[in-house]
């Protein structure tokens, strides 16, 4: 049996965006795979036929990353395909061409229409009438309505300014999205029959969510000068039955003190999923509210203490999809419980009952009003993503696809062995991967891997980097310390206490692993983590020298310097620290790994990306400089053109190099 190697990830297939057709007879989804030569990912549309459980590839250009069902047999998807479209795109023009594909008659996709703006999510309102989320530049809000000469003039003006960025608001950039100052997401109506388009929201409006309900469109968002993390929004109703020109937008109600909000129709009820953040801050788990479409008044359907999404980590996904959807009056949603993400059903009386509970991760789902089945993309039984069908009555699962069977055939895949400990009065769950060809009489190096978030979890799912290390002869172990998701709000909440209980949990878990497995050479234990895991790596090396080496990735090092430069806004650091730079800077400094950098003696590798606007590269640079200047063995690898998602969706060659760097660092110190 062979070991999984670093390059094996190039052969993995990643599934996303599953959607049923309106009649529920078929579903479409996106399948992606690495293209090393072009250093990109190729994405193609696939079809699942419910009648015979067959799978068919629909497209083959490799650029089809999203779609919408137009009717029972036709799909619309955005793509730049023709030579004229490519020329327009290369000139900097903002537009979105759509192609129409008949899934039942075969043949090539045909040009359908072109929207005069950068389009995102779209919903069909009636035949030929669409509601579309689109990018709006507040400096040129009517770009979509300009003639060719006006658009060319606006494009040239932007080119003339390419050497400058003007910030007039915060946050001013977005991870993976570049500079966003002055940019908004607006709501547009498009009439295909007349080829006319109308922006329904004012230029400064930022769209959060929009849903069709009882023949009207309900919109959530706010006209905002600082569009980052905000604690307020307004609800609007759009009537459109008399056509695009007579469509009207009515403000129903304004709301204060809500976070993470989204609208979800469930049968005859419109739901708001949001949190007030009064008890546990920005990361507080959302509640479910019934929304009155008359006056916008809210009533609590369920006061939930657990998350209503999947937060199980893996480096083997690409793209997303729905994590909640309704069939009839029942809302089916994902939820993270301990180290697994499961499928639950929220009924109109507020009961939330488990439907599919199995070790592993459900990454996304689709449901239909036409039958009691759900399609899910999941990672089960230490396999990569596959498409499954779930019976919504019994919870029984049936695997439908086998995209990744060959990728792992004949490979050693280490099975996570659960290990539960008690630390600081808390039960802490984790897992251990045994090295390939494990022999208890031999001695082995090991790796402690710490997840990001902190409000995410590790679980018993396939994780490429961990399997690579296990295949190379390392023990790999990981756990969910306080601050992680998968449990209630109280367990998740570590505001003002970073580096305290969570640090003790990680060290206690390490001690427990070493006690359970004497074959681990305690002088050859490595440690790594990214984002929050990078923060904890920086913290750990300043508080102990027990690890032979460390690799800190996309980290935070200094809460004071982090203030005001992250795309998650000026409030995140203060919320998490329970302090701010002006009234309580000493508290932020006490919780900063930089405060303890003079204690570091552990050889440390730093990985960062120059377009990481979540944890900007200065954080890694500070920590690197503080130990390199003191002669501690150190190395910093900065990836150009990558962002905070390097390990999950970075360019294929960059992902290989990142893992080669970390693995090489471990080999240098743990196997010397």
Shape: globular
- Structural class estimated from helices and strands: alpha+beta
- The number of strands is 40
Number of helices: 13
Name a few traits of the molecule.
672 residues; alpha+beta; globular
Q: In brief, what are we looking at here?
A:
This protein has 672 residues and is an alpha+beta fold. It is 17% helix and 38% strand. The longest helix is centred in the C-terminal third of the chain and has 19 residues, at 652-670.
Report what the structure shows.
The protein is of the alpha+beta class. Helix content is 17%, strand content 38%. The chain is built from 13 helices and 40 strands. The strands form ten sheets. The protein has an eight-stranded mixed β-sheet with strand order 33-34-36-35-37-38-39-40, with helices on both faces. It has a four-stranded antiparallel β-sheet with strand order 2-3-4-5, with no helix packed on it. It starts with a strand and ends with a helix. The mean pLDDT is 96.
